[in-house]
Design goal:
The structure holds 2 protein chains of 2 kinds. In chain A, helix 7 (213-223) links the parallel strand 9 (197-201) and strand 10 (228-231). In chain A, 32% of the residues lie in helices and 20% in strands. Chain A has helices spanning 51-66, 82-92, 108-115, 133-143, 184-187, 189-193, 213-223, 240-251, 253-258, and strands spanning 16-18, 24-25, 41-48, 70-76, 97-103, 120-124, 150-154, 171-177, 197-201, 228-231. Chain A has one domain: P-loop containing nucleotide triphosphate hydrolases (Rossmann fold, 3-Layer(aba) Sandwich), CATH 3.40.50.300. Chain A is globular. Chain B has one domain (2-108): hypothetical protein PF0899 fold (2-Layer Sandwich), CATH 3.30.2320. Chain B contains 2 helices and 6 strands; from the N terminus they run αβαβββββ. Chain B has a 3-stranded mixed β-sheet with strand order 2-1-6, with helices on one face. A 3-stranded antiparallel β-sheet of chain B has the order 4-3-5, with no helix packed on it. In chain B, strand 1, helix 2 (38-49) and strand 2 form a beta-alpha-beta unit. The two termini of chain B are 31 Å apart. The chains are: A alpha/beta, B alpha+beta. The A-B interface holds A 9-10, 13, 15, 30, 32, 40-53, 127-130, 132, 160-161, 163-165, 186, 189-190, 193, 221-223, 225 and B 1-2, 4-6, 9-10, 12-14, 16-18, 21, 24-25, 28, 33-36, 81-85, 91-92, 101-109. Strand 3 (41-48) of chain A pairs antiparallel with strand 6 of chain B, so a sheet runs across the interface. Bound molecules: guanosine-5'-triphosphate, magnesium ion (MG) and zinc ion (2 copies).
Chain lengths: 262, 109
Amino acid sequence: MCATCGCGDDAGVRVTTVGHDGHSHAPDNGHDHPDDPDRARTVVLEQRILAKNDHLAEHNRTWLAARSCVLVNLMSAPGSGKTSLLERTIAEAALPLGVIEGDQETLVDAQRIEAAGCPVVQINTGAGCHLDADMTARGLRALDPRPGSVVVVENVGNLVCPALFDLGETRRVVIMSTTEGPDKPLKYPQMFVGAHLVLINKVDLLPHLDVTLDQIVTNVRAVAPTAGLLPVSATRGEGMTHWYRWLERLASPVIDERHPAG
Amino acid sequence: MHELSITRSIVESVVDRLPGRRVTLVNLDIGKLSGVEPEALRFCFELVAAGTDLDGAALVIAEPPGRAHCAECGSDFELDALILLCDCGSADVRVRSGHELRIRSVEVA
Ligand SMILES: Nc1nc2c(ncn2[C@@H]2O[C@H](COP(=O)(O)OP(=O)(O)OP(=O)(O)O)[C@@H](O)[C@H]2O)c(=O)[nH]1
Ligand SMILES: [Mg+2]
Ligand SMILES: [Zn+2]
Ligand SMILES: [Zn+2]
């Protein structure tokens, strides 16, 4: 039983003890049966492996909603430009922002965000290759974002693991940069399938590369046909106003309804 | 390696459900499209289970294949990667199975 929302931790879980005579009792808490103590018994759990994480993620959503905050889970391979994107966003977007930085080690990214003038919390995962809902909960409490903020989580640079862990985000944003090779969406589909928005970063480098924007877009579309797609340059600024508009709409859905064309 | 946290979740969930029970076997569904490697999971499981009620338990992993349905032509087909494209050319494809990450059942002593 969970104190915050009153839901059971085991919500949706059926527990049925099946004896060797085929009879079953349901529901059951998995308690022992006094009869035939030395026979192996099968206990049906039918439980999602990540149920606990998903449950904590729901709590983060509730917590954020109570503060009218939204959470963006920003993911990419190492070095695609997550921190650069945030630095420019902090400087240019007219939005109350907060940042949670996830890295295995160092405070480097948090220091960059701090220097850009934005409230920031660093989470170091050590050996961990992704953030989870529990770490995010701790990060949110430490950040204590002011009501109406857009909180961006810069996840650990990794195209595989973060995809599996719901943090309680409102939206998932994946950055892919032009220098990574156009095949990344095909090689790491899990990451792209769940994305609401894919930013194609470092478009300023396209003239120097063998890859075209079309090739990248085609591959993103193959795995994420409905995701939003924005080509940007985090360091040069190209395309960034579209990203700011996307964030503004996310932060104030009411305004969005009154101006559906915007 | 997210298989390590996945394995921890498995062991924690089972211990939570069946406190104090000696578990001898764990049945899992790890879908082919789930992004989790069964081999890496086996490797982690032995380490993570050591010293818990799941110490030495066997791990049985079923791998449900990816299956998808095309909204355009209505066909059902197998999907070995998350490339959402039907032979008919449509990308209006819904994944029906293959994402499973589930503890089905355990055997207790
Ligand atoms: N040319 C060019 N370089 C960029 C762009 N965006 C980022 N970079 C460079 O790419 C490198 C990595 O950028 P970061 O912002 O640190 O990338 P990151 O995704 O935060 O990296 P990790 O946190 O280590 O995963 C830096 O040298 C940036 O200057 C861009 O739009 N164009
Ligand atoms: Mg960074
Ligand atoms: Zn991992
Ligand atoms: Zn079809």
